[in-house]
User: Fold this.
Amino acid sequence: MAFNLNKSNTVLAKALIKYIQRRKQRGLLALFGKIEYDPNYDHKQGRKKR
Assistant:
């Protein structure tokens, strides 16, 4: 991401971006083990159609 900020705000902006990214990651980790996948799903079959 590109920001047009002065040097004092750049550090704060980078820290805020990192904080937001980690919160999103924690949300994804909360889903770990809770999603059930179809055992009959063939992920390679979609590639064959191209």
User: Anything to note?
Assistant: The chain has a mean pLDDT of 83. The CA atoms of residues 29 and 45 lie 28 Å apart.
